[in-house]
Amino acid sequence: MRQDPVSHYGYINAKLRAKIGLMRERQIVSTLLKSESLVDAVAVLRSSAYHQVAESYDKTGDLQHMELVLLTLEIAMYRDVAKHLEGKSAVLVEHLLGKIEVDNLKNALRLWYSSIIRNQSIRHRSEYLFKQRILHQVDWVALINATSYEAVCKALKDTVYEQTVASFSLSRLQQEGLFALESELDKNWYLQLMECTRNLGKTDREIATDVFLFEIDLKNILTLVRYFWYHQMESEDVKNLLIPLGKVYDSKLVASYLKQKETERDPQSLMDAFLSDIEDASELNKRGSVPADQTEVLQTLKIEAALDKQRKKMYQKMLTSDPFSIALPLAYFFLFKEETRMIRAVLNGKYYGYDEQYIKGVLG
Questions:
Q1: Which terminus of the chain, N or C, has less C-beta within 10 A?
Q2: Residues 184 and 214 in one domain
């Protein structure tokens, strides 16, 4: 018999609210920022929920190994929530974990590509690939050590990635690189994500659909800005990169935008059309003392920051949504990932000797 929402989410939401409360209380990122050095930052982590990261540094002194531990903690976070849920909501959480697997697969393919196509040594970098099972039974070691593209596909046999990877040929990858393949893996993950939401109960389905379609809209706007405006790719190539869902993809304005000449393209028009409460054009286009050849880079970064700000607002709002729904777990995933992202950024900043203000500027 299907559990009612109160029974289904009651325990896990109480647990997650306690975790979110602790996350806000400890303010670990602000404490890390005030650290004078990487060693001092590690000392902060040693007495925190991220003590395993500090222990990694004690054993290896290796920043990349610390980042691998952070990834391991993120994977464990998804699994911890999933085990307290059941049915379709647990399936959705598992699929969200699958995004980490997709990103890990892209990293593995880059290692293989460096080794076989570019004849570069990957021995050192391969140490930092997550090689345990995440969701599907991918043979990570066999993949990065594959001596043929057929062997790469074999390492992905019976996984959701096998067909996508096999649809590309070695000669195409040699000519075009991995960008198109990586984009296709991402696109398929999003399409499967929306399939997962259709199987949820009414309230969860409405919440998850709204959240993920908004994420897809943001991703499509960023694609249009990065590749059509900044990199000036051909319109058909850019359209193939878009996820075929959401109001941005279906918009007549976007269809018209993709027909514009290079000199006519204005990324601010996309922001104004699809997002509210964003920085105005004068702020995004502000040049200041930046050299002319860097203004487009600066504007792209500002647009990315504005999109990220919209994403944060959406997830913060979800903390006040129906307490007996999928909303709080989704918000918790975002907050946890955001915290680990910022910890990673601060550790890198301290490693390279940047001061607090510079790192804050990078974090946004």
A1: N
A2: no
